[in-house]
Amino acid sequence: MITAQPVAILSDNYAWLLRCTASGAAAIVDPAEPAPVAAAIDAAGGRLDLILLTHHHGDHIAGTDEIRARYGAKVVGAAADAHRLPKLDQAVAEGDSVALGAARAQVLETPGHTRGHISFYFPDGGVLLCGDTLFSLGCGRLLEGTAAEMFASLSKFAALPPDTLVCCGHEYTESNARFARHADPANEALTAYAAQVSAWRAAGRPSLPSRLADELAANPFLRAPDVATLADLRARKDKF
Length: 240
Ligand code: ZN
Ligand code: FE
Hints:
This protein is of the alpha/beta class. The chain has a single domain (2-239), classed as Metallo-beta-lactamase, Chain A (4-Layer Sandwich), CATH 3.60.15. The protein has helices at residues 34-43, 58-61, 64-71, 147-158, 173-183, 188-202, 212-218, 220-223, 227-239, and strands spanning 2-9, 13-20, 26-29, 50-52, 74-78, 90-92, 97-100, 103-109, 118-122, 127-131, 134-135, 138-139, 165-168, 210-211. The structure holds zinc ion and fe (iii) ion (FE).
């Protein structure tokens, strides 16, 4: 099965170090800052098979070539965005699978934040790498895509098993909680979860990965019943 460990990089990004427990194969997701990423890989034994890229933004791809050169890892990213990603060894699209040791990730096309954004889902271990599409208690800004695209992307996540571990690209949870509680003040699950997040952050621990079940109960963007509601929430959050 796949295990996932957050690696804090830049000001509030996470790269994710993935390990196949059966084979020892390892991958890093969105390694935008080489030094802390290499330190985490080396502390875990120094093996790196794959670099998985969710989308083309610099705070996700910047360290890719340096990490590739250091470990000889293969780079996987969206075929649709190959022109603006580092050189890809495997260019993928919806429905493709990516092997990591004994496990396989399913590739989900999840546009909204960017046109070519993809996510990786490992059923064995229940690990979702969702980049800047879904955040804990929030979702990505619609920089290139539409609310309808984001709604469809979030709907793919909502259909995954509730015990899925949600591995996002940023530690935005506490600030997302402020808007979420403003938007959905009567949601008791949200109130309780926001208190839990504050306690985790005060103790210096990441709020991620979160559990999909908690997002389904507390995240107003994932709970939006239709495109219009999601569009309204996103517009209000942009001005909050
Ligand atoms: Zn981004
Ligand atoms: Fe980002």
